Description:
This protein has about 475 residues and is α+β, with helices and mostly antiparallel strands. It folds into four domains: about 5-110, Uridine Diphospho-n-acetylenolpyruvylglucosamine Reductase, domain 2 (2-Layer Sandwich), CATH 3.30.43; about 120-235, 2-Layer Sandwich (Uridine Diphospho-n-acetylenolpyruvylglucosamine Reductase, domain 3); about 240-335, Alpha-Beta Plaits (2-Layer Sandwich); about 340-450, GMP Synthetase, Chain A, domain 3. Helix content is about 35%, strand content about 20%. It has helices at about 20-25, 35-40, 45-55, 70-85, 135-145, 160-165, 175-180, 180-185, 215, 250-260, 275-285, 305-320, 330-335, 340-345, 365-380, 410-430, 445-450, 455-465; strands at about 30, 65, 90, 110, 120, 125-130, 150, 185-190, 195-200, 225-230, 235, 240-245, 270-275, 295-300, 325, 350-360, 385-390, 395-405. The strands form four sheets. A seven-stranded antiparallel beta sheet has the order 15-12-14-13-17-18-16, sandwiched between helices. Strands 5-6-10-8-9 form a five-stranded antiparallel beta sheet. The longest helix is centred in the C-terminal third of the chain and has 21 residues, at about 410-430. The radius of gyration is 23 Å and the shape is globular. The protein starts with 17 loop residues before the first helix and ends in a 17-residue tail after the last helix.
Amino acid sequence: MSPSAAPSITADSPIPALATYAAIVGDDHVLTAEAERLAYGRDRLPFGNFRYRSGAEPGTLPRFVVCPADEDEVAAVLAAANAQGQAVIPYGAGSGVLGGAVPLDNEVTIDLKRLNRMVEINEINGTATVEAGMNGGVFEQTLNRAGFTAGHYPQSINMSTVGGWAACRGAGQASSRYGKIEDMVVGLRAVLADGRRIDVRPVARRSVGPSLIDLFVGSEGTLGIITQLTLRIWRKPQVERGHVIVFPNHEMGLTALRRVMQAELRPTIVRLYDAEETQARGGAELGLAHGTAMCVMMFSGDDRLVAVEEALTLELCRAGGGVETSRAPLDRWLAERFHSYSAKVISSDAYMDTIEISGPWDRLPAMYRAMQAAATALDDSVSFGAHWSHVYPDGACMYMTLKFKAADDQAAFRIHHDLWDRISTLCIDHGGSIAHHHGAGYFRNPWLVRELGTGHGVMRAVKQALDPRGILNPGKLALGPTA
């Protein structure tokens, strides 16, 4: 469907039960105009935006958009939708890049941004309780004013919500120190498909069966709608210090970083660039030889602890062939770390996408070589670059940027599909995971079942138990009739 062909819906249109939702949230909070529905018809999925700029839709448009004010209204909306068999999609800020918020069959979209209160900052427990629709940047600023940080800094921090972080099982740029979002959430509230509520109270630890938190963190709205979260928070660091290290090649850099993380050190920021990205990220200006790999690092916390971690980390890097250079690339990255450049590229006639995967240390070098070779062999125009920006004792995330040219959209779509297929298949073949922090949405459906195997059958069984009518975000995570 092209944007110009999208039908306009008004409150007088013959849509079943529109008045039901207006009675719950108020007439002003049910959006039916064409322009409003177009805005909710896509997220930041590059493929969807390629289609959009060529005059097509990523999927369909929502039938209409409902904007509840609180958990009570979310529960009432879901109870009504379940009774009618009306499929719904929870929507935060639309920053996802895998189509998780894209309607596939004219679902009703539930915008959660009115649930935007900071409920409590508990300084004794070191936790913050926040409604799911609060903007991520506002959340962090609110904590900062109280002397704390969430330690979660995705590039999308200013255009995402805290609930979206949890729903997609996201990661921030400081995950090597603070962990991913699943390491931060200690409690949550959610509403099930039929309007029932679940409250997982925040406690230090529990041993009362499998984690119910993990049932919803990463579920992308397919099992319930998260309305409130309690997260661990930390005191704002006393000092922050940064360095730029250059390795002869990225494999030597990976070995050094593995030794750093396995030495129980916790740098706040770790970003190792391959040869392609090293040159693009400041290596050319520094006159670094092509083939070298640049790593930017930051340390934060108490001055005495930072001094120890910094000294031991730099010692391990030097032992691994690393040499310190100007920190100009780090300063440039810090100044631009929350900027998004993909929209500028996608709004032009160029094509690009990013794919982030994770793997164990002993598989990463071979994974990189295989993926780079497969991508660049596909088409002469393909540019492949990668960096490792989330590192852990047992492995790391590899984040790839792919750019290419094509004669027309149809040719571009074929190249785009084949790039995703080759890289995702190689990832599974090499023992990695096809997603580290962007989630799955619907775009990763073709490879999700292969990665999870029998586990996906377990997910389908849980979905059937919690959402027997299949109204919650159907088709995402390869769950539902539109998958």
